[in-house]
Design brief:
Helix content is 86%, strand content 0%. With 70 residues, the protein is mainly α. It is rod-shaped.
């Protein structure tokens, strides 16, 4: 549970805003490295997906604990 919270905070408050700001600067024509922008975007996407999968795993484990395997 703590890992999900930590990943959420990292994604929502650090990596996501940095990637969004870099993409916005690139859209305005400012000199931004396209490789670095794409790298941040992909990393933010990967962290978000991993976080979603971990949250689903927690829910699945909770169901197994409450109801058993069958």
């Amino acid at each position: 549970f703590v890992v999900v919270l930590g990943l959420s905070a990292y994604h929502d408050f650090y990596l996501g805003p940095r990637a969004s700001a870099a993409m916005a600067r690139a859209a305005q024509g400012e000199p931004v490295s396209p490789e670095e922008t794409e790298k941040m975007r992909r990393k933010a996407s990967l962290i978000g997906r991993a976080n979603a999968l971990l949250a689903l795993a927690i829910v699945a484990l909770a169901v197994v604990i409450v109801r058993g395997w069958i």
